[in-house]
Each structure stands twice: as C-alpha cells, then as structure tokens.
Amino acid sequence: MQIMFRYNWLVREEWYRWCEDVPEEELLRIRTGGVGGILHTLFHIIDVEWSWIRSLQGKSDFQEGFDSYNSLEKVRNLDAAFRLEVQPFVHSWDVGMETRPFYDPQPDGKMAVDAWGEVMRHIIAHEIHHIGQLSVWAREVGKKPVSANVIGKDLIRPKLLS
Amino acid sequence: MQIMFRYNWLVREEWYRWCEDVPEEELLRIRTGGVGGILHTLFHIIDVEWSWIRSLQGKSDFQEGFDSYNSLEKVRNLDAAFRLEVQPFVHSWDVGMETRPFYDPQPDGKMAVDAWGEVMRHIIAHEIHHIGQLSVWAREVGKKPVSANVIGKDLIRPKLLS
C-alpha cells in the first residue's frame, strides 16, 4: 500500500515543479473535464487524500474550497500541512486493516459499508486518474506532461539472483 | 495486487459499454494528449498490460499497431483473447514474486533491473492514468465519463464487527 502512496507523492512533486514554468493564468484556466483546471486538480487530489484518511480515523474532513488556495504556493503549503497527518497513517498501514469496516452514511439515508482497503485504493486510484487528466491539459498548454511511469523510481528493490 | 487488476477490468468493461453509444468517428478522432484517441487508448491499455505480462514470463510481446484494431469490436476481441493469458498470471500472483528481478535491456545498451512488483503496479497505474485521459475526452464528446470510483464495486468484503 505504501508503495503507491510514495509513487503518487513523487509524481505530485514533479507536477508542482512542472507548474513552476507555467504562467499562473494557464494553471487557473477553466478546462473541459475533471474539476476543470490544473491547480484546482492538484488541490482536489490533496483534499480527497486527506479527507478520506481523516474519515477513516473518525475525524472531521476538509470543507474549504479552492478559492482560498488558488496559487501554486498555497496548494504546496496545504499539501505539506496535510502530509504531516497523512504520511504517519500510511506508514502505519498493515494488512490487518484491509477489511476493517468504514461506515459511510449516504444522502438517501442508507448506510454504506466499505473496507478500509477499498478506501486506501480509492485514494491511490483517484490521484492517478486525475493526473491522467493533467497530462491532457499539459499538451493543451504545449508542454510535455510529467511521466506517469511506476518503473524507474526505485520503489521496490529487486532481489538479485546470485 | 489482484484487487486493482479486477478494478481496472471492471472499469474497462464499463468504458466499452460507454463506447457503444458513441459514433465511431468520435471514438477514432485524433485528440490532444496521450496516444491521441479514445479507442486507440483502450487498445494501448490492453497492449501494454499483455506485453508486460508476456515479458515477465520471458515471452515475446505484441508488435501490432492500432490500424489493425480500429473498431470497438476488434478491440474487445483482442482484450478477450489477451485476458485468457493475463488473468491466470494475475491470479497466480503471490508476495514472493514482488522482488523478483526483471532484466530490461535499454536502448543505450545498459541493463535496467526492475522488481516484478514494480512492473505489476506499472500496469495498474498505466491503465488508470490513461482512463483519466478518456474522462476528459468524454466531456469533449458531451457524454458523462465512466466513474473511476474504487469504492462501491465490492472489491473487498469488509469484516463487520460483531
């Protein structure tokens, strides 16, 4: 589980660096699909990651809108602040937590029950999906997107045969 | 590992159904980003999945181009044919395979060594990333994209507290 969070954090950091060379109006421009913009997407990714991990722990989630975080610096600072809580939770993950129930009241009054392992994979896939959207918008800006490769990031050390 | 392959196969099937209601010219239209089109992306996803899993097994990979598979039916048939080989491999996965080395000769003559666990996660993330691109293009077509939610697909059964 930790491996894919690490992957996402590495790729996210590369996107922040990618954003440094792009005019802010391009980062804020309203676009087709997803949540509708590059910086808004990065904000949405960190919001969703933190909110789910807060919810698993029975804590309140994040209720603020993008309007209060509409610059690269503000998004990075929010990410750094949230990471202080997200990272220890991810690092403490063990397989015994996979099937723990998360009770999620639905708007229709019913109670959905998800496994914690589903929630964690949801957070991971959620980010990768939205990063895919950024890769399309990057080409609209005329700039090569960040690579999404998992391979080549030293995420797992292969055990060499002797 | 199996959970996220299952997720991807479920989402992929939903995209095939999504494509059924879209004129073929929209599915084939050249678009900005990724491999440049909706059906081409689905072809690319199944090509990459199969090719990596063939490579891990020391078998030859897939060398054909999209030109031979440029209809929804042909892509679905190719997927079904590949699945016969991909699925048993995924189902046979166990943690002991995570750090097995995969030797990958590079164009510059060097030898890269990846862990099998990295390759498998690469296949998973590769699909989710490209599906994110489809979700943008879906809006260009004017049609709601398939949900990327991991939650709600019964991928893990929560263990209810007694």
Automatic annotation (TrEMBL), chains A, B:
Concerning its family, UniProt says: Belongs to the DinB family.
Binding locations of a divalent metal cation? H44, H126, H130
Q: Which residues form the signal peptide?
A: none
- Give the species: Cohnella lupini
Highest taxon of the lineage? Bacteria
Kindly state which keywords UniProt assigns to this record, in alphabetical order.
Metal-binding
Which Gene Ontology molecular-function terms are recorded?
metal ion binding
The protein depicted here goes by the name Putative damage-inducible protein DinB
Q: Which Pfam families match?
A: DinB
Q: Which InterPro entries match?
A: DinB, DinB/YfiT-like
